[in-house]
Amino acid sequence: MKKRLARFFDWAKKNKKVLLVSSTILVVFLGILITAIWLKNSKEVSRTDPNATSTSEPTIKLEKSPLTGVEVSPDLAKRPVKGIVIENSPDARPQSGLQEAGVVFEAIAEGGITRHLALYQEARPALFGPVRSLRPYFLEWGKTFDAAVAHVGGSPEALQYARSASMKDLDQFSHAGSFYRASDRYAPHNMYTTSDLLDALMNELGFQESKFTPWTRKADTPSPAPNASNISINISSQYYASSYTYDQASNSYLRSLAGNAHKDRESGKQINPKVVIVMKIPQSVMADGHLKMPTAGSGELLIFQDGTLTTGTWQKPGAFEQYKFLDAAGAEISLNAGQAWVVALPPEKSVTYN
Predict the structure, then answer these.
(1) Are 240 and 113 in contact (CB under 8 A)?
(2) pLDDT at 230
(3) What is the C-alpha R_g of the chain?
(4) CATH classification number, 63-353, choose in 3.50.90.10, 3.40.140.20, 3.90.960.10, 3.30.930.10
(5) 223: buried, middle or exposed (CB in 10 Å: 19+, 13-18, 0-12)?
């Protein structure tokens, strides 16, 4: 054995270069072999291990918007509600922001001219307008949703009402810096505001939450045989008559006004509420010429959704309490999630559909 080792060391001394090259080749070969095995195992793990730890962001659990019933992130569901009084005379069309509103109340202001109170929670349109003056019933509708209401002045009764401690008032007369006049329209049809301006004002005034009773919601159930695909609402004259065409694909109603598609000025999209609600409400004219309309009480109700009509009764125990919509059997009517368009219709005016 000793002789063999001696002969090996003698050979190694004489063949150092050969031994060095061989050793290097062996080390490189082993390195390549180890790397190949590691890559193979790595690919197999990524290919076969579905439970491997993910580095993606955790899934956010959605909540229903109290205003619209649409599922949104929790921060959007907790936003305070804001309302904007938006003009509807021919000179104000097309308006900005109506298409994205969660709830829109439409009612006559004076002389058959209609006006809107548009309410927003999760949506933040870039622009709202034209903004016009307030009436008491718009203020009560806003208060029902604990909304801060933006407007440009108002009737004497409405302004006195708005300045009471219980109201969240965003009057342009008191907060001119949160509104501006557009140069491409003429006064008084050119007063506008933005989400950024109103949100900043609401934060400044401490209007940072809205507590109200949401409407009961349901899943969309489009009728396979719609019986209310075309609706016409004669609220006053032909200039303010509205109509709705049921679109089964979106399960919504395409709104037209005075015979033309009612579109948003910025997006060009046609307004398409998921639900159209008509409430018959008695109306009278006061001595100063302004309209008087109680928001509380009860009356005839028509609700159009899913291509069908449900008739019943609306109930509102107090001016600031939430509406209840009851069918002919007295059961509460649940609404589709999305925009609800509410028309306060004089009892003598008609609604037709087919």
Answers:
(1) yes
(2) 98
(3) 33
(4) 3.50.90.10
(5) middle
